[in-house]
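Sharing a chain and its predicted structure for anyone who wants a worked example. Both blocks are below, sequence first, tokens second.
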Amino acid sequence: MNAIKILAIVLIVAGVLALVYGGFSYISDTHTTKLGPLKLVVQDKERVNIPIWAGVVAIAVGTALLLFAGKKS
């Protein structure tokens, strides 16, 4: 398996995951305070939405790479 086929498979999987989940979330620490033995942490939960068109494009590009990667002129 060469690098182009691996990239194609990764793009297809990433596109399917983008369509299924629609995005991802993460937690960021905004403020941290330590008062003696107490530690106070304020965390914000952020969500990043991935557009539907980005998932479709990733699947299409991955499929095109997979289909045409083996063909040589």
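Comments welcome. The radius of gyration is 20 Å.
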